[in-house]
Automatic annotation (TrEMBL), chain A:
Key words of the record: ATP-binding, Nucleotide-binding, Transport
PANTHER family for this protein: SPERMIDINE/PUTRESCINE IMPORT ATP-BINDING PROTEIN POTA (PTHR42781), SPERMIDINE_PUTRESCINE IMPORT ATP-BINDING PROTEIN POTA (PTHR42781:SF4)
Protein name per the record: Molybdate transport system ATP-binding protein
Pfam family name, one: ABC_tran
Gene source species: Thermolongibacillus altinsuensis
Automatic annotation (TrEMBL), chain B:
Entry keyword set: Cell membrane, Membrane, Molybdenum, Transmembrane, Transmembrane helix, Transport
Membrane disposition: Multi-pass membrane protein
Role this protein plays: Part of the binding-protein-dependent transport system for molybdenum; probably responsible for the translocation of the substrate across the membrane.
Protein name in the entry: Molybdenum transport system permease
Transmembrane segments: 12-36, 48-66, 86-107, 135-157, 195-214
Amino acid sequence: MLHVAIKKSFPHFTLDVAFTIEKGIAGILGSSGCGKSLTLQCIAGLQSPDEGLIRLNERVFFDSSQKINMKTRYRKIGYMFQNYALFPHLTVSQNIAFGLKGKPREEVEQKVATMIEKIKLNGYEHHYPAQLSGGQQQRVALARTLVTEPDVLLLDEPFSALDHHTKQLLEKEFLLFIKENFAGVVLLVTHNMEEAYRLCDQLILYDEGKVVQVGDKQQVLNEPSNVKAAKIVGCKNVWPLDSVAIDEEISCYVNGAKIMVPRKKERAHPRFLGIHSHHIRFVEEQSYNTFDYEIVECIPNMHAHDLTVQTKHFTLHVTVPTNELHAVLSHERKLYLPPDRLFLLS
Amino acid sequence: MVENVNLFPLFLSLKVSTIATVLAVIIGLPISYYLSRSNGKIADMVDALITLPVVLPPTVLGYYLLVLFGRQSALGKFLEEKLGLLIVFTPTGAVIAAFVVSIPFFIKSARTAFASIEPNLLNAARVLGRSEWNIFFTVIIPLSWRGIVSGITLVFARSLGDFGATLMVAGSIPNETMTMPIAIYDALLAGNQKLANLLVMIMTIVSVTLLYVIKRLEKRIIRGERSFHASRSD
């Protein structure tokens, strides 16, 4: 269990976050400069918070009330840096052995050999980092960290140094490798929602140094709790509410249009209504939550089209699969907002 | 004819420069490391103080050293009475003069090399359990090796060629404190142009040879690294 509750102030930025991760892979998601990497650095002891508490299981890394600030080298942390930070003057073997100083030579050699076997870099033992591909460098960085058997694993944008194609190939392998070789808490930092969704179990959404939502990834993605969280998870349709009437169902009014939301979605003080662009559907029959529409803009994408659609009351962004595009364009249908997919935001 | 030439100034010059270079490296390394890590007011002051010998005329520098180490000064008295160490008009004085004149070149060079190391490499070493002391020798020094070598070359060259400060502090006592540049000046002053010419020639040949050897050595290190990389890359 990793517990973090810290504050750190800079002239133009304040980090003030608190979260607890019980187990599994948690992702910190947010735009650049929101304090994601800074959080990792504080956990590793590379930066000191102004106040707060950082605790891993029973070990206290930092506690301002007791003036505890454990040195980085005693924290037993696995840290993978954004550009991997492999030592350019050391070979693959020497890089992996770097964290095993003080252990008997045979043990070091055996552990390094096992690791090289695991990351499938046999024959590359005496190569230097500059001679490796991006994916190989990533594996060496991961091996160098995991060979020390850390108590927690921190990953700072593990895929940002790789091109899009390589990244897609390696993601699955990377995840599998971590799951097979590491049992503790993993904290991953990324600005890419899809990457976070594929790799993590839990998400922590950051905005300007604050946590805006923490939870299971499905829940965070499908039901963001506020406008900032909705923006971070990539929700393009957020409308301010005129008024809300709670009956057997919740009737929401947006620019005069009545939209029904199921009762189970109730939230205290709702101020906005949102829906993901890919959850909006087009149906043939008129019912509640259906609207006539006009298409304002159509941008073709690889597997779908991004439409901007205008109804009498509001404008929406809709993602339509290419095979349904024809029916949508010919205006034979009605726009439908599935009640289960709608969410109220505070 | 060469047999008749007194080569003492050459050997003294080489000895003084070597000792001054070793001192500059030992004292310069921690200072350059400190300067590369901090940009506060104190660091700026230290930096200004260290750059001063480059800007000041060597005679002014020599004068300051005389005032500092002279037999009348507190430091000079202390060194003479407690340690039996005489600075002024001794070879030790020549070493100190050469050291002060040349150390800025080492610090500038080493500092730039230290500062260009990716900070996350040091963080990675910390996370992997290494102490700051250990990181200095296993990561920082190997990665800034080239800058340090070129710093050493500069220091040695500057020490070998110093005239003004050495003359002020160590004087020009033949067979005692007379270094090569001073011997050349002395020969010219005495109207012995033949000797001056010869000494100038020797000095030039020795300097060029030394710098060439250092350059080759540096290249060999770099090429060695590269060929090692290349031989393993296929």
